[in-house]
Amino acid sequence: MEKRLTFWMALLPVIVLIAAGAGSIFVWKVGMHVPLLAGMVMAAVVALMAGWKWNAVQQMMVNGVARALPAVFILLVIGIIIGTWIAGGVIPTMIYYGLKFIHPDFFVPAVAIVTGLVSITLGSSFTSIATVGLAFMVIGEGLGFPPGLVAGAIISGAFFGDKLSPLSDTTNIAPAVAETDLFSHVKHMLWDTLPAFFIALVLYAVIGHTSVIQGADQSSIIALMDGLQSIFIIHPLLLLMPVLTIVLIIKRTPALPALLGVAIIGAVLAIVVQGETVTSVMQFMTSGYQVESGVEAVDKLLNKGGMVSMYGTIVLLVLATGLGGIMEETGAFQVLTRRMLERVKSTGSLIMLTIVSTFAVAFSTGAQFLAIILPARTFVHKYKELQIDTKNLSRCVEAAGTVGINLVPWGVPAVFAASVLEVDPMAFIPYTFLAFLVPLMNVLYGYTGWTIVKKSDRRLVK
């Protein structure tokens, strides 16, 4: 039997997923696990109808999930880091000195800048969100800023750094799939990322200034600082832990061993500096830090982390990549884009189609890797046909697949941030300005031709 999907067959899993996802977010309030499972089931049914055997469909899911396994291990270690860095006093020390020295007038743009610098050094948006981002979240709430605004600034900064860091996995995947080199890709992304980030900082400064006029509750800040001091030994030397993490990454230590190493050092600090027992530290690594201080703000800050806290995000990642495996190997995405690609005649329309298609995969699967890989594989030949340098393609799929995917409430990045920062995605998405601006910059460049490098064009190549 010939294995071929029609346009409507390829579209059906996407319709089911988006309809179920919308129902889950706006009506049922049960998260995205069931909608993603529904989309995966429909994709499997469509594949069976098209002629694939069940064993082949099952292997497609396995192949898709296999690509996510490195991310699964990193998520587990990030959960451990949160638990041990809280128990060791690292995150409480960051929060304490942040509350003491950061001026409210510059707080929100400072959040985006500092998180961005940490992320570009670490090459990991998730690690930045889970460490300095978590600290900024609590500081912001103590200063009286809306949680959604602070979370949006954290996420914008984290993905600004992730997008430009040569150490980032997505920054390496995009040029590899688009058939260009890493450093040309990074240099080319400066044209859309830096202006977008600058505009975002201006917006954060204006909105942050408006928010701070309402005033911060100094008594709650003092109570939070006193609560931290009553539980932990607060010392500036504990701030060396983030510095050590940055040094390890700069030395090109592989991400997983580096993160595991700083997690273990956090556990040692919890025992040696904070006086915790080995048993309690093992519990913190598994289920997160737990304390009842009597101060609600302190308990809200501290009671989190551990590998268990990452399970929901990991299940979401498994479901998303399982669905993506079927969609990729059955050629569903290629079927959906084939007609549109045939009509593309100009640079502007090709750039627009690349951005829209990347968002389509992002909304269909919620997975960063798939949102980058599928469009890049599909469009690379069209870029070559039109004599457009493929680093324009890698820049576009990063714009929508790495950064823009944060606009997807059920996407893995948004769900992870919501879990760590304890802010609903619908609260921070409107404030995640970078996720709106970077894709828009690429569309603007596509239709004006500015910064778009042709194969015969030697400008901007160096």
Summarize the structure.
The protein is mainly alpha-helical and 462 residues long. It has helices at residues 7-28, 33-50, 54-66, 69-87, 90-101, 107-122, 125-143, 147-164, 169-178, 182-212, 218-231, 240-250, 255-272, 278-287, 296-302, 311-329, 332-343, 347-365, 368-385, 390-403, 412-421, 425-428, 433-448.
Radius of gyration: 23 Å
Question: Count of DSSP helices?
Answer: 23
Low-confidence stretches: 458-462
State which percent range the strand residues make up. Answer: under 5%
How would you describe the overall organization of this protein?
It is a multi-pass membrane protein. Belongs to the NhaC Na(+)/H(+) (TC 2.A.35) antiporter family. The protein has helices spanning 7-28, 33-50, 54-66, 69-87, 90-101, 107-122, 125-143, 147-164, 169-178, 182-212, 218-231, 240-250, 255-272, 278-287, 296-302, 311-329, 332-343, 347-365, 368-385, 390-403, 412-421, 425-428, 433-448. By secondary structure, it is mainly alpha-helical. The chain has a domain at 69-310. Residues 458-462 have low confidence and may be disordered.
Q: How do the strands and helices of this protein lay out in sequence?
A:
Layout: H1 7-28, H2 33-50, H3 54-66, H4 69-87, H5 90-101, H6 107-122, H7 125-143, H8 147-164, H9 169-178, H10 182-212, H11 218-231, H12 240-250, H13 255-272, H14 278-287, H15 296-302, H16 311-329, H17 332-343, H18 347-365, H19 368-385, H20 390-403, H21 412-421, H22 425-428, H23 433-448
Helix pairs in contact: 1-2, 1-17, 2-16, 3-16, 4-7, 4-13, 4-14, 5-7, 5-11, 6-7, 6-8, 6-10, 7-8, 7-21, 8-10, 8-20, 9-19, 9-20, 10-20, 10-23, 12-13, 16-21, 17-18, 17-19, 18-19, 18-20, 18-23, 19-20, 20-23
